[in-house]
Write a structure and sequence with these properties.
It catalyses: a 1,2-diacyl-sn-glycero-3-phosphoethanolamine + S-adenosyl-L-methionine = a 1,2-diacyl-sn-glycero-3-phospho-N-methylethanolamine + S-adenosyl-L-homocysteine + H(+). This protein is of the alpha+beta class. The strands form five sheets. Strands 6, 8, 9, 14, 15 and 16 form a six-stranded mixed β-sheet that branches. Strand 1 and strand 2 form a beta hairpin. The longest helix has about 35 residues, at about 215-245.
Length: about 1100
């Protein structure tokens, strides 16, 4: 299926920015190259780097690690000495200890260094990617600051300068580059020791194999040497392409402006350094002939894939492919603000804007055209009810899905039950083989003939038109038939494998090996199928281009009919033809059956014929010269042969001229394709769950008691405990209510917040309070103690007054830094915080304070005597929004904590997070940002609240509250003697500095009108879909599965489109909502 591919999400011609591509390939230089008709190699020149805050710098050249480490004439740093000593330790273990002892020691060493690599380095990179954590750590401690670093600064400077060349200046490069250089030293230490431990471990298992024939030994060792040589070539060629910058994960720290040609090994496999780049592990296993080495190598390789899936792929996606939702929403908001400023200039106004240290402009993917050739409202139900793809999107109440289950039960389940009851495996095996052959022939021969007729004469479409249908119905019916046949083919193979499964007289070690290899092939098949589907989508998976050549003819058709060799198709022209039968060969290994192997071979031969006589002719007819001849692997092998021989043995005529240049330039974009992991879910029975909950409660109670004993030490040095306090500001419902409603309403209404609504909180603290004080939101029943918090906040927290050290970890869209100071107030030392801002109901107030020892009346609080002395207290505000809000209806409380600990300084009164009636959504939620109700004319009758116009506006507000993000900016302001400026400096006037750093926070909503796509950027992940589905169900009473919202978002549904589905659902359900039976 080479040509039914969707275009890549990656864009060319984008400026480099903190979320842009690491390779700025296409641009004016590409246009010049295409016009010239030839690609020339540019001479190597100095690279320009760019830090996350947009500062550009010249990237100094780095030295080769092996040469600087092992060259005796190169001066050695402390890091080099430590690395060499640890390497020598492994060598000493291998030569000194007895065989049995050193095997255990080296196995433990290999496990340790491998966990340091995938676990330790992975955690550090993930921390750096999400919070700039490693750089923030150095900023916080001042280790790279000349004024604060002291001896550590001098030592690190000498270490780095010894490792770099003359173009490096420690003081002139940004801190991100220096931290990256230090991180490189840690990487070298771990990776070299990981390799050394594995090498010496393999040396301890040489000669472990019991080969029955000498030629077995020669073949095994020769194969292992070939794999080792191949592994070496992969690493060397990969380093040739990505250089030290990407080799050491430089894009986690800063980005560079450079053009890379991802050829060679990058055209052979995705993530070659992690996939085929570990072939040497299996080469070592073959040379030693040890199952121990093989399984150790396999475990290490699996850890590397976990590292790729949970560390590298998320960073690659948000940096180069799809920026985070917060980044897109904030940038669109800033672009709208700039557009309005340019369109409506006010020449007479003078605006004083603080100097911003915010991130630079962010380049987002180009927006899709607003005019859709076929609105989703006019498309069939399949746009809202996704088709069954194998068993994905299975619906228990869909007739076709139930029929497939029944068909499987009759054809697969009953024979298995018969074999289990009677023990007659031969009869079932014969039946299953005949059935499997039938499904294979039906899938390739019968469906192949139908597709060929559809390609030449539109047979299936004409048949449906003749009998009163249309092309949409023809394609829908074809999808159901094709998926059914695919499921039955897989099911019949499984039946053959179950009937043919036997252990025989094989050795246990061989059986384990067969099962391991078989399961690996099955996993590889699942990954390749998912990769194919990610590229093709629904339309390509079901051969949609046999049914339509115009995007407006079918609902699932892509916007354009062009070929984009992305994803797995970058390496293989037709993955299904080459590796699409891996699971069946794996089943043959597990069952140790030649019958299963023969059926897998038959299926692969039939697929080759299907591709040759059905797919390829149709593809060449539709796409013509866009269909390439050689895959990425074939092209790489040809280039390697030509380079090795020194003359062009293989001539690539396809890539001559302008078309070849364009293809090469396109290939340069398509790299770092993500591997997707299958989420593994486990469940427990109710008794086990109850036991675990009881154990958890017991542990929580014990934790509280132990923590309360340590509490006095945490708060013993805190002055003026009575000045700490927090107070909730009124909710949107209270602000939107009239004076009459406020007087008649209950006090609880004032602090009853709606789902997704931002919550603003006033806080008060002494001027010398900790800048790491924070406020968290918890369910009222979550904590057992009022003195210490024992449960995690799950991200629902905000710092009250963050300083520069904390702000170093801030990234775009962070909602935890939304606190700031508003001023300084003179407060009587004896007064409680409950009296600030004339609000007598503030928690930790009412004339009570916590005792230092924790023992007092009224639950740890005691009445204190009022002292007439006056002290200064900071007063400020925090905003809970987006990810800092709990997105679930319930009763909550807020807790003010001391200095990054869980010691409680103040608590709020309980408050509710609930939902309003559908008729109040627009009136209340629509006016939150301005602090007043939106101007909205209520419908004349109650029935109008079910109209498409009203529900569209209501849904717009719900989506905006669900996907709202926090735009916190670090800005520099001038210091003076005003209360606000003094407060920003911790209550003191700094005579040595003229500026200070503060945070400005704004809650940004993504959508402007009901015609905007409800998914912001056309993509919803599972978490976002569940969040939106919960909000729609809570506010509008209609429940959408997350898969439905994801599917609709993928096909460009707007807010109005979703509102129409809500209207239809409410009408369908309203007839029985009040009925009694």
């Amino acid at each position: 299926m080479v040509v039914r591919q969707r275009p890549s999400k990656r864009r060319g011609s984008q400026p480099l920015s903190p979320i842009d591509d690491k390779v700025s390939i296409i641009g004016e230089s590409v246009a010049d190259t295409l016009s010239a008709g030839v690609v020339t190699d540019e001479p190597e020149k100095a690279l320009t780097g760019r830090t996350p805050d947009g500062k550009a710098f010249a990237v100094p050249k780095t030295r080769d690690m092996l040469q600087s480490l092992f060259n005796p004439f190169t001066p050695k740093t402390t890091f080099d000495i430590v690395t060499l000593v640890t390497l020598s330790t492994h060598m000493a273990v291998a030569f000194v200890f007895p065989l049995a002892v050193k095997r255990w020691i080296l196995m433990a060493a290999f496990a340790f260094w491998r966990l340091c690599y995938n676990g330790g380095l992975g955690w550090i990179l993930n921390w750096q990617s999400n919070h700039h954590g490693l750089v923030a750590l150095f900023k916080r401690n001042g280790w790279l600051d000349q004024n604060r670093g002291g001896k550590v600064y001098l030592w690190l400077k000498s270490e780095l300068e010894a490792k770099m060349g003359p173009d490096y200046s420690f003081e002139n490069v940004p801190i991100e580059f220096n931290v990256w250089l230090l991180y490189r030293q840690l990487v070298d230490l771990i990776l070299l020791n990981d390799f050394a431990a594995y090498f010496f471990l393999c040396s301890c298992y040489l000669g472990s194999a019991n080969d029955s024939e000498p030629w077995h030994t020669y073949l095994r060792i020769s194969g292992g040497m070939i794999l080792l040589a191949f592994n070496l070539w992969v690493k060397v060629d990969a380093h040739r392409v990505v250089k030290d910058y990407a080799w050491y994960w430089g894009d986690f720290f800063f980005l560079v402006e450079q053009s890379l040609t991802f050829d060679g090994v990058f055209e052979m496999a995705p993530h070659p350094m992690y996939s085929i780049g570990y072939a040497g592990y299996y080469g070592g296993s073959m040379i030693t002939g040890s199952y121990t080495i093989f399984y150790a190598s396999l475990a290490a390789h699996m850890l590397q894939f976990l590292f790729l899936s949970f560390v590298e792929n998320p960073h690659i996606e948000k940096t180069y492919e799809r920026p985070p939702l917060a980044v897109q929403v904030i940038q669109k908001s800033r672009n709208r603000r700039l557009s309005s400023m340019h369109s409506e200039p006010d020449e007479g106004a003078s605006v004083n804007t603080p100097t911003s240290t915010d991130l630079p402009s962010i380049a987002l993917p180009a927006a899709a055209p607003s005019e859709n050739p076929l609105s989703i409202r006019e498309r069939p139900t399949s746009l809202w009810h996704p088709d069954l793809i194998v068993f994905k999107n299975f619906d228990l109440f869909r007739a076709s899905d139930i029929l497939i289950v029944l068909l499987l039960l009759y054809s697969i389940g009953i024979p298995l039950g018969f074999m289990w009851i009677t023990g007659n495996k031969q009869l079932v095996l014969a039946y299953s083989i005949i059935q499997c052959v039938g499904w294979i022939l039906f899938r390739t021969l019968v469906l192949g003939i139908l597709l060929r007729k559809q390609s030449t004469s539109q047979l299936i479409t004409r048949w449906y038109i003749k009998h009163g249908g249309n092309g949409e119905e023809a394609f829908s019916s074809w999808r159901a038939v094709y998926n059914t046949v695919t499921i039955m083919t897989y099911g019949s193979f499984g039946l053959v494998g179950a009937a043919a499964y036997h252990w025989g007289d094989a050795l246990f070690s061989n059986l384990v090996l067969f099962h391991t290899l078989g399961l690996l092939l099955i996993a590889f098949h699942i990954w390749s199928s998912r990769s194919v589907y990610e590229v093709l989508g629904d339309f390509g998976w079901f051969y949609g281009d046999f049914f339509a050549r115009d995007p407006s003819m079918l609902s699932l058709a892509p916007a354009d009919f062009k070929l984009y060799y992305t994803g797995i198709y970058r390496y293989l022209n037709d993955p299904e033809k080459v590796i699409g039968q891996a699971a069946f060969y794996g089943l043959a290994l597990i069952s140790r059956s030649w019958a299963v192997f023969a059926l897998a071979l038959l299926l692969q031969i039939c697929n080759f014929m299907f591709n040759a006589y059905v797919e390829t002719p149709h593809m060449r007819k539709i796409y013509g010269a866009q269909v390439r001849r050689d895959s990425g692997i074939v092209r790489t092998v040809k280039n390697a042969v030509n380079k090795g021989i020194g003359q062009p043995v293989f001539v690539d005529n396809q890539n001559d001229g302008i078309a070849g240049v364009a293809e090469r330039l396109l290939r340069e974009h398509n790299h770092h394709d993500s591997l997707s992991m299958v989420d593994l879910l486990t469940s427990t029975t109710k008794p086990v769950k109850d036991m675990l909950l009881e154990t958890k409660d017991l542990l929580s109670t014990t934790t509280v008691r132990l923590a309360e004993r340590a509490l006095p030490s945490d708060l013993s040095k805190v002055d003026h405990l009575n000045l700490y306090g927090i107070k909730l500001l009124p909710s949107a419902a209270w602000r939107a209510a009239t004076t009459k409603d406020r007087n008649s309403g209950s006090k609880a209404m004032k602090y009853n917040y709606y789902l997704g609504e931002s919550i603003r909180v006033l806080w008060q603290a002494p001027v010398n309070h900790s800048r790491r004080d924070w406020i968290g939101i918890y369910p009222v029943t979550a904590n057992f103690s009022n003195q210490i918090t024992t449960v995690g906040s799950k991200g629902c927290f905000v710092y009250t007054h963050p300083d520069e050290n904390l702000l170093a970890e801030m990234v775009v869209g962070d909602s935890v830094f939304a606190g700031h100071v508003k001023g300084v107030a003179a407060v009587k030392d004896g007064d409680s915080a409950g009296n600030f801002a004339s609000t007598p109901n503030l928690a930790n107030g009412n004339g009570f304070e916590r005792t230092a020892s924790g023992s007092a009346s009224k639950g740890g609080l005691r009445k204190r005597n009022v002292v007439a002395a006056t002290v200064s207290a900071l007063q400020g505000e925090v905003v809970f929004s987006s990810s800092a809000l709990p997105f679930k209806v319930g009763t909550y409380e807020m807790r003010l904590h001391h200095g990054g600990t869980h010691a409680v300084l103040a608590q709020s009164n309980p408050f509710e997070i609930s939902v309003c009636d559908t008729s109040d959504v627009v009136r209340i939620l629509g006016g939150q940002n301005e602090g007043t109700a939106a101007s909205y004319t209520e419908p004349p009758v109650a029935a109008s609240y079910d109209s498409i116009e009203y529900l569209s506006q209501a849904l717009l507000q719900i989506v905006n509250k669900t996907f709202a993000v926090t735009d916190s900016r670090v800005v520099s302001v001038s210091k003076d003697s005003s209360p606000a400026a003094v407060a920003a400096n911790g209550g003191r006037v700094d005579t040595d500095s003229d500026v200070d750093v503060v945070v400005q926070t704004e809650v940004v909503e993504p959508l402007e009108s009901v015609e905007d796509a409800f998914s912001v950027d056309g993509v919803l992940n599972e978490k976002q879909a569940r969040r939106l589905g919960y909000a729609i169900k809570s506010y509008l009473g209609v429940e959408f599965a997350s898969d439905v919202l994801i599917h609709a978002a993928k096909h460009g549904a707007t807010v109005h489109d979703v509102a129409k589905r809500v209207v239809e659902a409410r009408k369908a359900l309203s007839a029985y909502s009040s009925a009694t039976f």
